[in-house]
Each structure stands twice: as structure tokens, then as C-alpha cells.
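hiii, so i know i said id send this last week but things got crazy w the move. better late than never?? heres the sequnce for the chain we talked about at the cafe, plus the structure i predicted for it. fair warning i was half asleep when i ran it
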Amino acid sequence: MIIRRLDIEGFGRFRDRDLELAPGLNLLFGPNEAGKSTLHAFLDAMLFGFRQTHTAQGRQRRTRAYTAERERHRPWDGGPYAGSLTYAHEGRTYQVRRDFAQDELTVRDALTGRDLTATFGLDPATGERDFARRHGGMTPVVFRGTLSVGQGTAAVGEGALAAEIRGILTQAEAPADGPGAGALETLRTAAEHIGTPRRLGTPLGQANSRVSDLEARREIALSALQRTRELEDLEQRLEAAQAAATAAKSERDRLERARAGARLAEALALQTEIDALPPFPTTRLDELGSRQRAVQEAERAAAAAARQEAADLRQRAAEATTRRRRLLELGAIADDTVARAQRLEAAAQPGAARVLALAGLLGLVAGILAHALWLAAAGAVAAAAGIWPLLAARRAALALSRLLASAGADGVRTLASLDDERRVLRAQPDADPDALLREAAQLEAAVPAGVPAVAQARTDLAAYLAAHGVASPEAFAARVEAADRRQHLQARLDGLLSGTSLEELAARFPGGPPAADRPPAEREVEEAHTAWLNAMAAATRLTEQAAALRQQLGPAPPSLGAVEADLRGALAERRRLEVRRQALDLAAATIEAERQAVQREFAPVLHRRLGELAPALTAARYAEIHVDEDLNVTVRVPGRSDLVPAAMLSRGAADQIHLAARLALAEVATGGAEAPLLLDESLAHYDDDRLAAALACLGELATSRQILLFSCHNRVAAGLRDIPHHLVAV
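okay and structure toks below
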């Protein structure tokens, strides 16, 4: 991985800053507080982001946490928080862009702009895309513990780095110069690079996707071929429909012209007849009608009044007849009849006599039973005294009954009411019913000509008729009929012209209306017009269908032959990758059996590399450096037989020893990948001799690895005067 360019949109103090880097040794030179450490942090963030390692609970809940660095490096001006990194790997250039505010990452091919983000896997610990591991062999732990050296942190990292290095020392393949040199990792990497049909970011996944795409394109091409044939058929049908529409329009135009000629002839005839009829103002017609209605209403009112008066007379005649008949019915009642009936009614109620007679009878019976003659005699006298009044009341009741029956009453009260009715009827004036009926007949038969209202209305009507030159309503009716005829003819003419003037219609036929044996009927013209509309609708429908098919086909529908040829090639490529993946898996399985033996030989490789780097970095003062599984660094000091911890040496010596350890660990941890080395003021505590030796060593390392050396010291820049490097001003 060779970093080519940094584009900082916003990060800490930087805003819209671009930096060009080169392969080999790069000196990023600038004074204190120029932002070198910020650039160092920007590179780290671009490679690995700010996400913290997931806990098991966090992975289960899909929560996401960030390191404190994310807030620390927000832009000072509050603008966009983003940037890009462009790097080269195996002849291809990639551009990585991060939006730190939104936590969004995009990886593209810098040449074509193609989005490659999905082709990289996800780090299970952080969820970040693993382009740095794929192209630089770096995990965040390895990078920060070995390749990225910050100010005052030259010592080898502990904790996570130690665990990761232990895993490398106990599980990775043999070193490059041992038996089966890196074969298993190479095979696995190659197999992983080929991928599986379901991993779209791998060649096999892409080949499988291409086969699927080409199969879909073949279906599209088949469909396009079918649609092309349908389109050809539609175009033939459309041509026929358009011809039919043209013929239907010609026939419709012919019939409409013939009908227009017939309309002109009829209109001319109507106009001639209209001109022969004198005009008559419609307002006067309305006024005459009003006057005629006034006469009729006056006559109807007079007749109604006469009928009402005759009805009143007939009612009076009926009432007189009824009065006479009722008086005859009440003739048996004399003036003293009610008084007589009241006297008989009083006589017919002897209540005391009944009591006395009853008491005497009871005394007579009691005396007889008691053998008391005095009591019996007294009872007999009392009974005789009460019996005679009873007989007199009986005679009065019989007389009252005969009197009421002769008067037609059921009681004295009824008789009294009948007598009252007789007296009322006798008090009313006597009228002759026959005379009343004769008078009513005369009223009904009489003509109401003498009524003043009728006479005035007739006079007004006669004056109006005379004012209009007629002597009688019959003559006026003839004038009205002629006016109605004129209006009717004018209405027919207006309807016939339908808003067109007679002159405009005649202008279409300069030689007069054409002669026709039979003018076309309205139905024929309508049918011809409907036929034309149907033909036009059919042509429009076919046009829309053809346009829809053309749109579906597009400007250049895929060629079925070309698609099938590409599909055969894609199938062959997928099969080739599948066979290669199977071969790689088989080879990896074979090598796996020998891994244990190779692992035991891997740790010496680290110490051998330390033996090569230590003399170069320490001017040959320290040649033996050891790093155990816990990353404890010890060194053999001249004059002593034991190993001394590097932390016991001077600051400059310790920095040199730890830098050698970092470089060796980085090469082991990254599998020899060309990951960049970042040194931020890592040489600040070196004396001149050791500085020269370290710079010479870095210059040698830069022939195979990109190195970014951050410094503010002029002696570092001076020491690189004769060493090839690229200067970047910060």
C-alpha cells in the first residue's frame, strides 16, 4: 500500500488541505504546532475510523460506540468533518473517503470511479471495512503498535498488540525463507480473493453475478426480440388503420358536403317563405293576449258571480221548502199542548198515595195474622184511602202518552223543544220557493254583457284590434298564426344553419347548392363521422402501443447473439474460478497438515530480523535483541553476559531498540506486506551518530516500504540531504 494523496476537507485545525506523497521516504517537515500530529491522527482515522471494538453485548444489540479521538479532532471552524485518502496497491489506485460526522465510508476505483466499498469485508471487532488489512496487512492493533509511532511512544505496545503478536507467533505460517514459505496464507488469501458465488465483492461472486446479469439480459434480449416482432406487426396494423381513417374521413367529408348542400337548398326555401310573411311584433301579440285574457277573466268573473247568486237563490228555495214541510210536520202541536202535557205529567206521579195504600195492606194482613180486629180494620181503611189516588194517576199517564204520541215526541222535554222549533219557524218570513227558482234560472241563462267590467274589457279589446288594422278577433288570429308561422320557420332556419349565416353557407357553393337525387340523412353522416372517429381511435391506440414498445426496447435493444456469446464466456469464467477455488482449497487442506511443524520455526524469524535491524539502527552497538510473547524487549549490552530490559537504557538507545522491535514485528505481523511506516518525531532523542545511522537505515528500508517521517528538527532534514526522499511542507 503506497499512500499517494491526502485531501482534508475538515479535520482538527485543517480545512481544505491537500498533500501529495511519494513512494519511499517522505519527510513531513514543519515547526511545532504546524499540525504534524493532526496529520498523523488523520492518517490513522482514514485507515481505521473511530469506532471502538464491539463487546459481545454490543454486537448482539448492534450498538456502535466511538473513541474519544472522534470528538477531539472535530474541525475547529465547525464545517464539514471529512477527508479522502488515495493509495496504490498492486498496480491499481484506490480512493477512500470518510465522512466522520456521519460515520460513512466509500472506497472507489480512482481511475473509473466505480464504487468498491461492498467488495471489502467487515472487521468483526469494529464493523469497519478491511481494505487496510487486505491491501496493507494491517489491523488497527498491529498498525498502532508497530507501524505508527507517535511522539514519545517508541516503546512496543502491550495488551492487545501482545495478544495479537502471540497469535501470529503461534498460529501463522512459516516465514518467507522457510519450507512452504507463506503458502497456506497465500492459498487462503487466493481462495478468499476468489471468494464464493454469494460474496458479490469477490471474483467468483462477481462472475456468478455476471452470469446472473447476462442470463437476465438474455431474457431481456429474448423479450426485446419478441417486442420487436410485435412492433413490426403493430406498425403494419397501424399503417392499415391510418389508411382506413383516411378513407373514413374522405367519406365523412363527402357526406358532410352533400348534407351542407341540402341544408343550403332547404335554408334558401325557408328564407323565401319567411320573406313572404309580414313581420308582426311579438310584444303586441303579448299585449293582445293580455287584453283577451282580461275580457275572458271579466266574463268568467261575471258568470261566476251570477252562478253564485243563482246558487244562493236555490239554497233559499230549498230552505223555504224545508220550512214549510217542517211546519206541516209540527202542525199537531197547539199553543197549549206543552202546558197540558206538563199537567198530565204531574198528575201521573202520586207518590204518597202509594205509600198509604201499601201501609194499609200491611196492617190488614198483620191484624188477620194476629187475630186483632182493630188492627185489620185500621189497615183496611188506610188501603182504601191510597188506592183511589193511584187509579187517578194511571188515567193521567195514559192521557199523557196519547198526547205525546200525537205530537211525535218521546217525552215532555222533547215536546217542549219541538214546540220551540215550531215557534221559530213560524216567526221566519215566508218565501215562495218557485219564485226563487225561476229567478235563479234567469240569472244562469243571462249573458253578463251588462256587467260594467265586461263591457269595459270588450271595449278595450275592440280598440286594440282597430289599432292593429283588424276588425275581429278572427282576423287578428290569422295575423297571429302568420306570425307564429314566421317564427317557426325562422327557428327551423336558425337550427339548420347552426350558428352559420346563410351567406357563409352559400359561399361554400358559388354555383348554388348541388343537385342531389337524395340528400344524405343525418344518420348516415353521423355513422360516417363515428366510423372516422373509431378509425382514428384505433390508429391512436396502435400508435400508443407502438410508442410504448419502442420505449421498452430503448434506443439500442441488446443483441441476443452478443448476449449469448458473453454468457458463454461468463459461464466459462465462473467455471474456471470454481475449479481454481476447489484447487486452492485442496492445496490449503494439504498444507494445513504441516502447519504445526512450521509454527515452531516462526519465532526465530522475528529474532533473525531483529538481528538485521538492530545493528543498522544502533550503529552496530546492539546486535542482539529479544522479544518474548508478552512483547517484553531485552537487549544484550556490550560488556555484560545477561539480557537487559530496553527500558533500562538511555532514552535515545531505548527508542532505537524499540524502533527495531516495531519494524521486525510489523514485518512479521503484516506478512511482509508493503504497509507504510509512520514516525512522528521518533528520532528526536538520537545523538548525531545514531541519527545518521537511523536515517541511513530508513533510507534503505524506504526502497521496499513507504515511510512517513514527521519532524520539526532541522538536523533531521539536514541528515537526509544525501538520502533520496520527498519533502512535504506542513
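btw The first helix runs from residue 36 to 48. thought thatd interest u
miss u guys!!
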